[in-house]
């Protein structure tokens, strides 16, 4: 794959941009659409690799889909309406969300389905979803208990379960909710707080699902076996993608950025809460509610200095995809920042906590990594005057994009391998950099 070479900094800008549609909501809209009956029209769907894997996988399962110019028409066959040949293999590519959530929808499947993934996905833990799905009655075959490839066989005789999700993983919670959707009776989930798009989506479609909000845990009850109608949906901008351009703007001297129509669900704004505690003044304007979700335009200006943070652990799950770019801001803060209990970060597309620590050291930042805690010794005068090579990072899209942002605002001569990696979640990333004035 191509290498990206970056040798100069970006100039100040004053721009309005839109980022690609939210990855989590996009995948959910396709999977939920596949279980509805009738034709769904989904607009602003990103042409990212994870979405293309989801569409290809659903097509193999007999769902008719037409996808053109960011609009998708999907013909739902109703609950458990997948219609496919024996011995199919679904390639989830890089997408943990697609693979784990799909397994939940396959608990009643008629023939076995084999799921495979790329090198990064094949090192990730699947026992976290196969364990609860076994309790519903699904069976799994895999060489090694916890990784892909694995084959799921559904059951005619599903039973609802009581499930306790302790990691704060929305993928585990959603996989179980999807299994509950297909299982007659009441599935009850107690889940450590995490993004709640699945619950909001199903509730918006009037599926019998109740949410009882607690301080640290939510309780979700879903009554399965009820058919529901197709829907129209427009995907909002992705907060996780916005995060890269927010931090870039903050770190420049005199720039201004507005990002239009971004999802600001309260379970996704941990990043904003963290950087605002560090002294950023990011604002939401033109707030509106649609499909049970909140959207807004995000406004941000450059700022002179940032405070270090002792990051409250209760924000971890709501900022889990943004920590790499938060660490970059911490590297420019005036003091030592501490982030704790980030073990889930090493379970992502790459071992992110370890890689972040080694990249920060490479660019001259003092870092102490102790188990799942990281201390970052910020330096407001941080500048880079040497060559930096970023490679062997499991093609993790967020490592790539964080490295690009570091390169264009801190300087130095960067060679970043596997340039295509950003397309897994944010295909317009490079185009937007160009739009705000970076000349490649
Ligand atoms: C996601 C949940 C998070 C996140 C991932 C998307 C989702 O993973 O890191 O990018 O759409 O549910 P976990 O649920 O494993 O924390």
User: What is the top-level CATH class of the largest domain?
Assistant: Alpha Beta
> Looking at the structure, what is the overall shape?
globular
- Average pLDDT metric: 97
Please list the strands of the largest sheet in the order they lie side by side.
Answer: 2-15-17-16
Question: In whole angstroms, how far apart are the ends?
Answer: 18 Å
Q: Please estimate the helix content.
A: 25-40%
Integer-rounded radius of gyration? 21 Å
* CATH superfamily heading of the largest domain: Enolpyruvate transferase domain
Bound small-molecule species: shikimate-3-phosphate
- What is the number of helices? 12
The chain-level structural class is alpha+beta
What is the name of the CATH topology of the largest domain?
Answer: UDP-n-acetylglucosamine1-carboxyvinyl-transferase, Chain
Tell me the number of structural domains. 2
Biggest sheet details: 4 strands, mixed
Describe, in plain words, how this protein is organized in 3D.
This protein has 440 residues and is of the alpha+beta class. It has 2 domains: 3-20 and 236-435, Enolpyruvate transferase domain (UDP-n-acetylglucosamine1-carboxyvinyl-transferase, Chain, Alpha-beta prism), CATH 3.65.10.10; 23-234, Enolpyruvate transferase domain (UDP-n-acetylglucosamine1-carboxyvinyl-transferase, Chain, Alpha-beta prism). 29% of the residues lie in helices and 27% in strands. The protein is built from 12 helices and 22 strands. The chain has helices at residues 23-35, 49-60, 96-105, 127-136, 170-181, 197-204, 239-251, 270-277, 323-331, 352-362, 397-410, 429-435, and strands spanning 4-6, 14-17, 37-43, 64-68, 71-77, 88-91, 113-116, 139-142, 150-153, 162-165, 185-192, 209-213, 217-224, 232-234, 256-263, 283-290, 293-301, 336-339, 366-370, 373-377, 387-390, 413-416. Helix 3 (96-105) links the parallel strand 6 (88-91) and strand 7. Helix 1 (23-35) packs parallel to helix 2 and helix 4 (127-136) runs parallel beside helix 5. The protein is globular. The two termini are 18 Å apart. 51% of the residues are buried. The model has no long low-confidence stretch (mean pLDDT 97). Bound molecules: shikimate-3-phosphate. The site of shikimate-3-phosphate has 12 residues, from helix 5. Residues 24, 97, 169-171, 174, 194-195, 320-321, 344, 348 line the site of shikimate-3-phosphate (S3P).
């Amino acid at each position: 794959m191509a290498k990206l070479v970056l040798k100069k900094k970006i100039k100040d800008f004053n721009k309005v941009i839109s980022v690609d549609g939210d990855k989590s909501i996009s995948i959910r809209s396709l999977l939920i659409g596949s279980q509805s009956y009738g034709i769904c029209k989904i607009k602003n769907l990103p042409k990212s690799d994870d979405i293309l894997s989801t569409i290809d996988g659903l097509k193999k399962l007999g769902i008719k889909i037409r996808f053109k110019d960011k609009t998708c028409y999907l013909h739902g066959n109703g609950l458990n309406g997948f219609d496919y040949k024996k011995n199919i293999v679904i390639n989830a590519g890089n997408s943990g969300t697609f693979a784990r959530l799909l397994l939940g929808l396959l608990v009643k499947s008629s023939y076995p389905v084999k799921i495979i993934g790329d090198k990064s996905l094949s090192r990730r833990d699947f026992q976290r979803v196969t364990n609860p799905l076994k309790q519903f009655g699904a069976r799994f075959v895999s060489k090694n208990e916890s990784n892909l490839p694995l084959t799921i066989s559904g059951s005619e005789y599903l039973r609802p379960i009581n499930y306790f999700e302790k990691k704060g993983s929305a993928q585990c919670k959603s996989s179980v909710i999807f299994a509950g959707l297909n299982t007659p009776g009441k599935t009850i989930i107690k889940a450590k707080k995490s993004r709640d798009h699945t619950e909001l989506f199903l509730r918006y479609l009037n599926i019998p699902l109740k949410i009882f909000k607690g301080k640290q845990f939510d309780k979700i009850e879903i009554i399965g076996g009820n058919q529901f109608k197709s829907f129209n949906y427009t995907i909002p901008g992705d907060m996780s993608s916005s995060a890269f351009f927010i931090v870039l703007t903050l770190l420049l001297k005199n720039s201004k950025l507005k990002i239009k129509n971004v999802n600001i669900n309260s379970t996704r704004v941990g990043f904003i809460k963290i950087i605002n505690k560090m002294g950023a003044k990011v604002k939401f304007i033109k707030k509106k509610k649609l499909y049970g979700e909140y959207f807004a335009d995000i406004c941000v200006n450059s700022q002179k200095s940032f405070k270090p943070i002792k990051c409250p652990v209760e924000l971890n799950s709501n900022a889990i995809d943004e920590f790499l770019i938060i660490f970059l801001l911490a590297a420019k803060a005036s003091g030592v920042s501490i982030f704790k209990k980030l073990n889930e970060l090493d379970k992502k597309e790459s071992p992110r906590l370890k890689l972040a620590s080694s990249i920060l050291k490479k660019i001259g930042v003092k870092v102490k990594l102790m188990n799942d805690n990281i201390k970052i010794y910020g330096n407001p005068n941080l500048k880079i005057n040497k060559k930096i090579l970023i490679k062997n990072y499991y093609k993790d899209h967020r490592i790539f994009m964080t490295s690009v942002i570091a390169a264009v605002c801190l300087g130095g001569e960067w060679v970043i391998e596997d340039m295509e990696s950003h397309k897994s979640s944010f295909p317009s990333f490079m185009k937007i950099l160009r739009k705000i004035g970076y000349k490649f």
